[in-house]
């Protein structure tokens, strides 16, 4: 045995040396990654945060809140579309339904499920509420499709806005009385403030009850528990909190002006950057021109040539636009055309038209919106000659030769086409998404990025910023001509520009400050919360009455009796 083992050991190969064993190890084991690389790998595998306003996060919010029974059926990574969640459609567009259901999910989670889940574990209550809301939204959409939006929402806006010009609350309320906003609240009278709030809350509930009595089916209207809860959601959370609460605050309107002006300014800069490339000119050229603007005879000659080219291009663009507008359809209500086609198909004599949309149709240039805008900027008081000249052009375009701006004229069709494009439903999803981000940061009630001013000085500073934002959008020459200058200098046309420290430059700075003061006085028209409530409620009543004329003919009790017997 000893000899056998010795012979076996002698026949076995000798182990390789240490250096050779080290060289036979795997290559990845020899070079271990440094700690920095391992840290980078861990950071790369970390999940990227999801935008709470994205479609993925919105769908997850809707599934968790409104469709919890589907969480176990679907995979974790599966992202169904909004139409796959077995929810009743709110509108005819899925992208609009996605944003509306996101609002409903937040409202139901924070204000309904927070207390209902403590009472019972029943999950059929939320689908019943959603079904009632879906009935209301689809019925409203059908009425919107039959509504002449441009005539009813644009031509009637002057009657609302002209009422804002009355500054004192007492005079304002006596001329345009709203019973539910009486008595006029005063800071030194707490009883009047509380009474006005109670009247306003009662009016909101009656208004929503009348709307539900018209829109809901009879079987849903017979359920008092669900209808009462839906009434509270619409009257308090939507109308009371958003429309009459936050939208009536002057500081929020000033913030909205600043945000809109900033967005328009960025869009204007992007458009200018696309049109004019900055590679062919020095970056200091604009600064030098701003510092010292020289008006010479040669410069005026070049300016005249540029103005002539601009005028020629404007005429060519106007002629091409009018030629294209001829192919646009006439301004007729779609539902009237459908009814006429149906009557012709059935060989029936069409009944006399009782719809006021056709009789109320006027040319776009005759809309009261233009007079409303003129009242806001105080056109007749500041530049009466300009108002008269615009009125002369308006009359000539509507009633003059060729009637290019008359009813169904080329210019009238073109303006109507652009107004209809403003009311396109494709604009709703981004608006609703931005509104949700402002009202509910991270899809939950929290501290908004827009903070109310804490003092009167901060409110005045905010109004000043809003005036400055509007001034930055307008050309300086337009604002100085419209608001007027205290000194007119004609000698600078052929001489060098003013230096920064010259008296003329100081006068220009004073004029700029005075222009901001004038713009502030124009913005003061929305500086009172009580007057803003008048405007918001008047606009809400106007829209609802145009959609549901039954509200102006019958009271809430009569509407419910007609539906329930």
UniProtKB/TrEMBL annotation:
Q: Where is the composition biased (Low complexity)?
A: 1-12
Keyword tags: Cytoplasm
For this protein, the record's Pfam families field holds:
PXA (PF02194)
The record's subcellular locations are: Cytoplasm
PXA domain residues are 93-262
Q: Name one GO biological process term.
A: early endosome to late endosome transport
Record-level Gene Ontology MF annotations: phosphatidylinositol binding
What's one GO-annotated cellular component?
A: late endosome
Q: Where is this region: Disordered?
A: 1-49
- The protein here is known as PXA domain-containing protein
